[in-house]
Amino acid sequence: MAKKFNELFKSSPIDQSVNQSLFKESCPRGYFSNPELNGYLSKSASDPKTIWQNQNLKQLFDIMKANVNLAREPQHTLEDGIGMTWLRFKIGRVTKNLKIAHFGDIKRLIDDYASGSLKVTQSLEDLYNEVSK
């Protein structure tokens, strides 16, 4: 027997990913594991050439937690063999650019946030504290 049209969309991927855990340990559709996040933050903090990566990641989580809209679609690039995503967002009247280095499945996290299928409710500090327990 054919299902009603509305029943076909009850468990859409968008509904499932809203407010999900970002960690693979807690959710099969998670974006990174605890060791991936901890390793990325530690590695970036220990090298003066990459400290900007932690600062930019913190800013990304701050704008996602504040539910700021992106001013354009994320641009995924490869720079010196490392995956990067360029974002543009607006705070008040000021448009800012932000570059995020890839680790785990951060690229999918950014795309899911940009499409509106993910709501981020934690800051990077909250996530780090969760990893450090």
Structure description:
It is a single chain. By secondary structure, the protein is an alpha+beta fold. It contains 5 helices and 3 strands, in the order αααβββαα. It has helices at residues 13-17, 34-46, 51-65, 106-115, 124-131; strands spanning 75-79, 82-91, 94-101. It has a 3-stranded antiparallel beta sheet. A hairpin with a 2-residue loop joins strand 2 (82-91) and strand 3 (94-101). The radius of gyration is 16 Å and the shape is globular. Residues 11-19 have low confidence and may be disordered.
What's the short story on this structure?
With about 130 residues, this protein is of the alpha+beta class. The chain is built from 5 helices and 3 strands; from the N terminus they run αααβββαα. A 3-stranded antiparallel beta sheet has the order 1-2-3.
